[in-house]
Amino acid sequence: MRKKLKLGVLASGSGTNLAAILESSANNKIDAEVKIVISDVPAAKALERAKNFKVPTAVHERKSYPTKEAYETAIVADLKKHDVELVCLAGYMRIVGKEFLGAFPDRIINIHPALLPSFPGLEAQKQAFEYGVKISGCTVHFVDEKTDHGPIILQASVPVLDDDTVDSLRERILKQEHRIYSEAIQLYAEGLLKIDGRRVKIF
User: Is 112 a catalytic residue?
Assistant: First the structure.
């Protein structure tokens, strides 16, 4: 039996991608398990989802720390206390800084609801919809110092229908997010990913 990859998940909101990861782990669809969930928002529903799966949680509010470095040092300490091997950002609404990146080099991944490099940042689904694209989607990528910029692991396309609204498009993209995030984690767990410059090779 393959050793399970130890995950730490950071989430600021409802945590539906977290829920998908937790369910994939519980159903043995991925060789990984969530060891801790951390949020910067005390009322985040993601924390409740974690507790339902009996996963330890922690809250670190940015305002509680004098600097971003101190804030990230506290988060890194919690992740390392749980022997986390891969950090998954799941609706974590803060840009990761040098302290964090240095502690987990090439070991932080993120899910973004658009086909990067198009429409980075907030409200990506709305950006794509208002631009008038015919195909949108989602991206799992490694995290670097820039917003929604690191090397791409997986993408899934979602057609934009004539009768779509931003909300209906968001829901269909979300279903693909749940699918490819777990797929990307499994590829990492199996050691099948290699970063080569801007590209991620899958073996």
Answer: yes
